[in-house]
Design a protein that fits this description.
The complex is a heterodimer of chains A (162) and B (692). Chain A has helices spanning 3-29, 36-41, 43-46, 82-87, 91-100, and strands at residues 30-35, 51-57, 63-65, 70-76, 106-112, 124-131, 137-145. Chain A is an alpha+beta fold and 162 residues long. Chain A folds into 2 domains: 1-30; 31-159, OB fold (Dihydrolipoamide Acetyltransferase, E2P) (Beta Barrel). Chain A starts with a helix and ends in a 17-residue tail after the last strand. Classes of the chains: A alpha+beta (162), B alpha+beta (692).
Amino acid sequence: MSGRTRFIIGGVLIAAAVVYLIASATKANAQYFLTVNELLARQDELAGKNVRISGAVLGDTIQYDPQKLELHFTVAHVPGDNKEVEREGGLAKVLHDAVNDPNRAHLDVVYYGPRPDMLKDEAQAIMTGHLGEDGVFYADELLLKCPSHYEDAVPEQAESGN
Amino acid sequence: MLAYIGYGALWLAFVLSLYAIGAAVYGALNNRFEWVESARRAAVLTWPMLLLTAGSIIALLVTNQFQVEYVASVTSRAMPMYLKITALWGGQAGSLVFWSLLMTTFGSAVMLRSWERDREFLPWVIVVTMVTLAFFIGLNLFVENPFARLWATMDGQVIKAVFQPQGAMPFTPRDGNGLNPLLRHPGMIAHPPMLYAGFVAFVIPYAFAMAALITNRTDARWIRLTRRWSLAAWLFLSLGLILGMRWSYDVLGWGGYWGWDPVEVSALLPWLTGTAFLHSVMIQEKEGLLKHWNMVLIILTYALVIFGTFLTRSGVLSSVHAFAQSAIGPLFFAFIGITFALSLFLLMRRWQDLKSDLRIESLLSREALFTFNNMIFVGVTLVAFWGVIFPILSELVTGQKVTVGPPFYEKATGPLFGLLLLLMGIAPLSAWGYASAKRLGKLLLVPAAFAVVTVAALLVAGIRSLWALVGFGLVAFVGYIVAEEFVRGVRARMRRGESLPVAAYRLIVRNRRRYGGYIVHLGVILMALGIIGTHFFASETQATIPEGGKITLGRYAMTYDALQQFFAPDGRHVARAIVTVYKDGQPVAEVHPRRDFYLDSQQPMTIPGVRSTWLDDFYVILVDWQPISVEGATFKVYHQPLVGWIWIGGLVFIVGTLVAVWPEPDPEERTTARKKPARTRRGRPLPRSARA
């Protein structure tokens, strides 16, 4: 086998390794990104599965037990479609409406860890975790965004609780 | 008034850049060099205009002109002066102006150099830099105007507009929103300008690459002319990334330094392709190979620079919702799409001309290993890019948004980074042209033995994690090779009668590019040490303890001694705990984890207390406290082994880059002066381009 052939085989192997790594890592770590309504509609199918949920934080429901580092709060459904968000007047307004609309679907969330700095009323919470049998969402990761205050890119971990 | 001056200057800069584009194209196509000269002057003039624009924004910021919407959104009265100045890049509109200012600064610097030898490049370099500049100024003028003012309309709404709308009254808020507290940190103040400087500096090599394609000058001249620009761009990007990591570690209070969030990834993408580019251009300079590949890399880097600016600045992030939030999104995508397509078209047109009559003939030759290194860097870029766009792709294809988190990136990039580390060790030992496995094997024998001994020692010490052992083994292997490279060079000089310090100094200074590169490699190895340490051996615990209580974590312990609360003059309420850190039962340090509450933005911020040594960090976060009750306070504690090496390695890395980028006495002249007879590879003469 000539050096040239061996070089080409080496290149092909590397390319194959990259493709394999992307495919396998995607398969193992992909999570659905859903709205509260979508999660509740597919509750049976998705219970126990790792998913990502976005919702608006209801400020009155935030409870924190620093002894156990146990955080409880409730989020309200916000639409996931960008065009819909635009039509309704931007993210800040959508979050505000979601929190103040008693007819919206709600989801109770439990999270263990330090209380995130940006957790407050009308913040957008993006949570990774699973829906328990009890209908409560157990979040392993919690990202928060407050569109009313900051237009700009704070890296997301800035707003994460862990 | 000030706002109108800045606004006017911005318009002038826009018009000048458009004129420069037109004049340069006309001059080049009709061989009328006076038009190109005129274009050059116009391009240089954009610099004072943007300086005036940025200067008036800063003047507005520091004088609290809250009637200007941008000022109101990023500053407040309580903010110290230096933060008000740096608020220039604290928001979207201002940071786009800052981007343009950097673009025209770098562009003008290039325009002012002597062009005699490369006159045919000049018009096209003007076109590329000015098109980029005009795009960014256009964003400011038509979409994100930093000079828009607030007006109260008749029906009681507050709107923003540059000129007074009909029937509206000027509106001035009493105070501004203030800069996001998270951004009020030295690391975060320096981080965006560094990142931007890196982004923008990469436009220069791209501009020369395009000029080379258009003028069909396919030798390595464009690479040699921009080598220092590429290195400088890379230096700034690296600095920006490292500062960002440090900021994340110091401020965000989660014990980590890299979270693979889209903002970080978007800054990493051009760094990855840029790193590949820096390596592969060496092959073109030395051997005349990989000409197409270098073009592809610099085109990709340019596209990723614009993409990265867009991602860091537009609030797209990973949020499902934010994508259409700002009007600049579609504009960015259109610009990236058009420039990318045009660049590829130019490349295709010259495809035949770029063909080299040489091929890579040996699996273990240095050019082959460099090519593999390049492929892996591009592989990591693909992984990271895939992670960022996967949610969008999946929604387009399946209608269902699917995301991937940090585990995806770690799993997919980990093995690739390991391979890169391995190649980093082997490649410098391999020979150009043809390398035999036997010879290379001989050279690798001792380093490999050293790695085996290291791993055995770690096994004895009780480390059982397979991948951590592989990682440490690689670090030992590559570390030995790099160290040997230095020792060998210094020894050779000492044999000629130089003393040790003189020999070491001269070795590096006389071969800046090579030994600068090795110093960078050394930095990478040290950083790898820190990354392996924190990735595999970090531990954490948390507890609520009364005053005088104790939390134990491994060989460490901490006691909660007292809590202090006070108002700081810059508008914060501070609650800080006095914590004593013990190691093996002995008190070793006092740290002060704290919670700052920013009154203007009503936002708390958690700052850790950290005790750092070269071996490990003990990192304490004050989670919560009850001032009066007996319950005391809740702490979260992290033990981060070897994390300090990330910062030490980062420093070494930067020093190495500085060594490589430092100007040498006219390298171009020197190489021509000591023109050696052309080397041949396996009996064939080298092409002209490879000799130059």
